[in-house]
TrEMBL record:
Its EC number is 1.11.1.27. It comes from the Bacteria. The lineage of its organism: Bacteria, Pseudomonadati, Pseudomonadota, Alphaproteobacteria, Hyphomicrobiales. Pfam families: Redoxin (PF08534). It is an enzyme of class 1 (oxidoreductase). One of its GO terms (biological process) is hydrogen peroxide catabolic process. Thiol-specific peroxidase that catalyzes the reduction of hydrogen peroxide and organic hydroperoxides to water and alcohols, respectively. Plays a role in cell protection against oxidative stress by detoxifying peroxides. Keywords: Antioxidant, Oxidoreductase, Peroxidase, Redox-active center. CDD domains: PRX5_like (cd03013). Gene3D superfamilies: Glutaredoxin. One of its GO terms (molecular function) is thioredoxin peroxidase activity. The active site is at 55 (cysteine sulfenic acid (-soh) intermediate). This is Glutathione-dependent peroxiredoxin.
Length: 180
């Protein structure tokens, strides 16, 4: 079986730094694929955009709520990635009151492109974004893969189900191993 790994990229994150005075105490912090994925078994899910309705109402809050159940299945972290910059992802995380799920900004779309999941969403005025998918990733190796059907540019619908937290959790509980 071919081993499929997540691509090596550098993510430009913004982190709070109390040593910075003023109303915006944040600085850039580069994090690599190895920082996020090295030596951990994680769930990664990717979606078309921060603040969009399905992502904000179902997918992200449900992953957040179900985090203890994922932990019980041997998952160390849950990461949500989107082709949005660090400012947008931080604002979305704050609005969602996240404690469990960690947001990864893929502002340039490099990670998503190298995953083969970058699609045009010009029909919504979004530009290039991620197709919806989720994966279980063990030390950088994709162990299970959950991709919504109909991968395409300018899709006129937004399929959601295969990459839902409930589906991923069920597969982990059943020990199913989808081909990566
Ligand atoms: C949604 O999450 O509902 C959504 C995602 C992309 C485009 C429009 C809506």
């Amino acid at each position: 079986m071919t081993v499929r790994k997540v691509p090596d990229v550098t993510f430009r994150t913004r982190v709070r730094d109390e040593s910075i005075e003023g109303p915006n105490p944040f600085r850039w912090e580069d994090k690599t694929t190895a920082d996020f994925f090295g030596g951990k078994r994680v769930v990664l899910f990717s979606l078309p955009g921060a603040f969009t309705p399905t992502c904000s109402t179902y997918q992200l809050p449900d992953f957040e709520k179900l985090y203890p159940e994922f932990q019980a299945e041997g998952i160390d972290e849950i990461y949500c990635i989107s082709v949005n910059d660090a400012f947008v992802m931080n604002a979305w995380g704050k609005a969602q009151g996240l404690n469990n799920v960690k947001l990864i900004p893929d502002g340039s779309g490099e990670f998503t492109r190298k995953m083969g999941m970058l699609v045009a969403k010009d029909n919504l005025g979004f530009g290039m974004r991620s197709w919806r998918y989720a994966a279980v990733v063990n030390n950088g190796v994709i162990e299970k893969w959950f991709e919504e059907e109909g991968f395409s540019d300018n899709c006129d619908s937004d399929p959601y189900g295969v990459s839902s937290p409930q589906t991923v959790l069920e597969a982990l509980k059943a020990g199913e191993a989808q081909a990566a």
